[in-house]
Structures are given as C-alpha cells and as structure tokens.
Amino acid sequence: MTDVDDRTPAPRPTEMQVRARADALLSRMTVEEKVGQLVQYFSFGPHFTSDGPALQQPDEVEHALARGRTGALLFVTDPAETNRLQRLAIEGSRHGIPALFGFDVVHGLRTIFPVPIAMAASWDPGTVERGQAVAAREARAVGVHLTFAPMLDIARDPRWGRMVEGPGEDPYLASALAAAQVRGFQGDDVGAPDRIIAGPKHFVGYGAALGGRDYDEVDLSESALRNVYLPPFRAAVEAGAGNVMSAYMDLNGIPAGATRRLFTEILREQWGFTGFVVTDADAGRDLVTHGFAADAAEAAARGVGAGVDLEMATTDPAYAHLPEALERGDLDIATVDASVRRILEAKVRLGLFERPFVDERRAAVVLADPAHREEARVAAERSAVLLRNEGGLLPLDPTTLRSVAVLGPLADSRRDTLGPWVFDVDLDETVTVLAGLRGRLDPAVTEVRFAPGIRPARRVFPSMFDVHPGNVPADPEDFDDDAELRRAVSLAAGSDVAVVVLGEWQHMIGEGASRSSLDLPGRQEELLRAVVATGTPVVLVLMNGRPLDLRWAAENVPAILDVWYPGTRGGTAAARLLTGDVSPAGRLPFTWPRSVGQVPLIYSHTRSHSPSAQGVRYWDEASTPLFPFGFGLSYGRFAYSGLTLDRISVRRGESVAVSVTVTNTGNRDADEVAQLYLHQRHGTASRPVRELAGFRRLHVPAGGSRDVVFRLGPAELSYWNAAAGTVVQDRAPFDVWVGGDATAELTTSFVVTG
Ligand code: BGC
Question: Which of 296, 314, 351, 631: disulfide with 318, CB 3.0–4.6 Å?
C-alpha cells in the first residue's frame, strides 16, 4: 500500500512543457537507456504461469526493469503488483522514469460490458463513450495507463473470429464509434485520475485476412484502404487517440507493422498523429518470422524506421538489438530519439512522474462501484437486437406467464455470458440469462425450469483468459448427452414458453478462433428443432459475436433476440428485454448472410454488371442477406414521413439538410435508429449502391413523433478516387434513402453542381 493519493490531479502540462521535459530527459540518456524505453514486456502473474501458453520467466521482466531495459509492461491488473513493479522501474532508471502499464481493456476491466460488436449494435455513441469511461476509471484505478482498444478493424468476413472485437462492416458507423471510444477512454486529459490512453488497433487492414483466417495475408486496393479500412482510425486520431497498434499480417506483400507509409506518411504526416505506435504482441521479432528481416537487429531497425516506436514482447525483444542496428548503420540515432521522445511525452502527459503509484484501497472501491454495473446493464439493453417477433410473442407478460423453460448450454454459463477478451473478472457477480429471468419473474406467478440440454464445450485456453482462479468451469462428469437433451425437450413441452439460449461458446470466437462454418456449434440446432417440435412457443436468445447460420431458425422460431455476449449484467438486461421493461432497439452493424458460402456479403457493394440480378448471383441460393445491415425490430412500430431537403442542388463544398419525421405508431414506447443512406448515381468512379451517411438513435413514445435533421456536406459527398489518387467530390446526382435499415424505401434526390 502506498501513501500517494492518486486523486489529486497534477496540473495539466502544456504541450510545450511536455516536449521540454521529454527533451531534457532525452539529452541525458545513454543509447541503452533510450532503447529500454522502447520495450514493453508482458508481465504475467502467477495465474498465467501455471498452465498458460509459453511465457517468459518473471525474472526476465524484473531483471529488465531493475536495469532500465524496459520502460513499459502489460498484463498486470493487480494494484499492489503495479505499485511493486513501478517501484522497481523507477529505482532501475537513473532518471527515475516510471513505467507505462498497458492492458487489453477491451470491453471493461472488472465490470464487463457487452462485446464491442454488441456495443456497435447500440448505434449509440453516447452508450459506447460511457462504457469506455467506466472501463478507463477501473483500469486507471489499478495502475493501467494504456488500453489496447478500441479495435477498429472493419470486418466483412464473419469467419474471422475477431469480428467480435470490432465495429462491424461499415466505415461510417465505425468512425462514429471510434471517436466515442477515444473520448470515453481519454476524456479531455489523460493525466486525470480516471482516464487512460486509447490505442486504436490494428493498423491496418487486419480484418480482411484471406478466407477469414486469422493472421493470414491481406491484399487491399488503395481504394478499399482509403474508403473503408482507414476512416475509423482517422476518426480515432482526430478524437485525440494517444496510441496506435500495428497489425500482424502482411499487407499487399509487406508486413503491415514495417510499412513506413502507414505509420509515418499516413498516420503522422497526413493525419497529424502525435502519439506513439506500439507493435502487436511479438510483432517486432515477427519481421524475421515473416521472412522479411534477416535478424532481430534488422527487424528492430525496420520497425523503428517505419515509425513503430514501442515493441510489445513476451520475451527476448528485437528492439533490444537496436544498439547493434545503430552500429551497423541500419538506422540513425535521430530516428530512435524521435521514438523515445514520443514514449516519454506520453508518460509526462499521463502525469506519471508526479503520480506513479495507485491507492490500493481506492482501487478496491472503484472496482466495486455499483454505478458501473448499472451502466453495463443499460449498455446490454441498448445493444440487443430483436431479429424476429412473429405474432408479437415478445414481450412476455410476467403477470400471466405460469411457467418458462430456460434451456440451452449458454443459458446459465457465466463465462460465456461475458464473451472473449475479459481477464480480471469475478464470475460470482455475472448474471446469466437464467439468473436474470429468475430475478425478474415472481416465483409465486411463474415457475422457471432449467436444463442445459447440451454439455458445455471444453475450454481451449483456460489460463489465458481467466485471471481469477475458479473462473474455469470443469468439464461436467456423468453428462448423459441424449438424456439431457430429452430432459430439456420435455421441460419445454410442459411449459408456457421456452427460452432457448444458444450460440458460440466464448472461446470459439476472438483471436485465433476463426471458423470455416457459421453453424450453431454442436447439437444446438438439433435441440432447437426438437424444442420447436413440441409446439411450445419458443424464444431463441442468441449469444454470438458474428452472424450465424440461422436459415432454419429464421423461418421456424417465432422470436429471436440477439444479446451477443452481454457482459456482467447481461442476464438482467435480457430478462428486462424479454419481459418488456425496455424495448430492444439495437441494429445489426453488419449484413447477416444466409450461409457461409455467401461471405463476404456487404450492403455497400457497387452496381456492377446486371444489377437487377444482384439477388440471384448464385444458382443454388439467393444472394440477398438473411437480415440486412442496420436491421432490428422493437416493441414499437415506426413510420417515416415528410422526407424533405432544404435544397435540391448544392455546389461542391456546400451541404444539404435532410429532414424526416419518425412516428411510433405502435402502443409501446421504444427507441428507433433512423438511418440515412446515400448513392452517387454516376461520376468519376462507380460508387456503392448505398452507403450509410447519417444515423440517429431516438426515443419515441407510443403515438409520438420526432423530427430528425441530417446534414450532408463534403465529408459525406466525397471519397477517395483510385484514378485521381486523391479524395474527390464529383458533380453528380445523389439518391438519399431514410428509414430503419439498409433497405429503407423512402427516397429523394439532389444534385451536386459546380
Ligand atoms: C492481439 C492484440 C492484443 C495483444 C496483447 C495480440 O495477440 O492481437 O490485439 O492487444 O495480443 O494482448
């Protein structure tokens, strides 16, 4: 425990002071000391060393800290441990330079929010910003200063497991949510006691891996890069992100993480990024693995030379060989100095020299804050997507429901309710769908019966993702698969309604977890079909981070609610949604294909040849999606009217205002996400049939109306043009559609002149 009160804010230094302080330090540092600042070591606690992946010895980290050979660590979330290691770092540096602690605070630290793809489905930058502000508060309280988030990789191939971590398929939505996340993490000042540096990742194109196979190479045209993959990063940089992480894979034949054009030209020179760049884990040495650099010294020279400042390493960092690279003349000291300066500046901005330690007592209080759990519940409610509700089966009426069978292997699995990329959780307080329904329904009225039906799947990386011992469920012994399935079906047969919770176990998605199929894994569809066959009305509750093959369910199951991996209070949120305490209003941040054979399937394709046959591009299956981008139902019913423009002709550089009235014609208060899509009819390139260019989530009481105004200016009306090699705004006619998803029909048009 330290006596330092980390709540006293240090006065915020001006950028000139930041620079002067970094330069003063730099002028006194030896080459070895400088190089030390460019290395970030994983520091796995005792939980990770038992049966986790191959890890470095704790000795290696402590030795490096004590000798000033590392200036940054990651993966430490215990405040006593961050304080202990911080003391080693300060004492190990002749200049008393504190260490920077990073961590993957992706969707919460202790309070877990819905996974990022779910947060994207809220279509609500406010919810997203509040969620990351809670995450930042908890992280900073334990001594974490930098998060490796937001993940901003556009994902258009759901076989890629990391789709769950990102914003989905659309650059416009992704950009809005990128900026919101940066604001949430960083606030106005990363030196504040409840803020951390945001690190958008992975720069860039990682989501376009061939075949959706994680880490495989990526080939992207300049047009795709500029119009689709780069914009969310640009939005994050414009919102002030202090860090960016490189990507693992080869991009157009060169490792992305050694591409000077990306980090120096685009990020720094064109966008004005002033923060520092970190490699992805072990991606420094990887330059050798890729068959790109001959040895570690060359890898280091080419990484730093590209503008990648800090190497994240499990062991034996390539950047430790920078002195050798300098001697060989592979790079010059000024380039190294520029990287070191950026790291030191980040430490100054964070206020680490003034307040290197955290207050362990306060950390415990912050982590337990009930207000954080409430934010997580609300976020889970706002991110759920109602995909189907035939005959108004939902909401269930808790006053008349006599019995409900809650079924499925994910219905009462705390670990799966949280999803991937959570480490420091306490499972005891995670509310599953079963627990949520039990808490919501009055036992005097409704009997809740439960059967998993199917055995839980085996964990693949138990120690990697579970810091708290006891968070790893054991494989059940004596699980009779057929008998359990029959028991579940008979519970359904004898109940008023069956709520079947299915999806992907959390370890089947995320990094290194691509799939060649989008089927519900295991015997889940068999269970679903058998339950439907009983004739009991069925609600399918989905837990997933990507679209799954729901062709059968979408025709045969009356109600489908996608809650994603909804987090710490996911079950409470699900119960409130199912019983109508709140109306679902989340919207898909991706196009939902019918089958894996259709992928990649996006709404913003070009017209190309034979546009009238766009829906019949295959002879064996429709080429239309199962659910369109932006789709989601609610308990309200919405009508759009009065679509008007403030002018029908604009000059380039001017903007046009688009107004519409949204009316809730239903009998329940609900949110609607009004969406605006744009199409340039012709010009100096073929432009997508539709592109999202505005959205607004609105609360509309039953019978009420809201007027919405969207503004379309040069940002929405221009694009990067391959022939011109730059951003252009064509003189052209534009179509506009406004409505509740990418198939919106209410339309008008205007023209851009001169
Ligand atoms: C992932 C990154 C992550 C890093 C540290 C890597 O394997 O690709 O997204 O931030 O590990 O955990």
Answer: 296
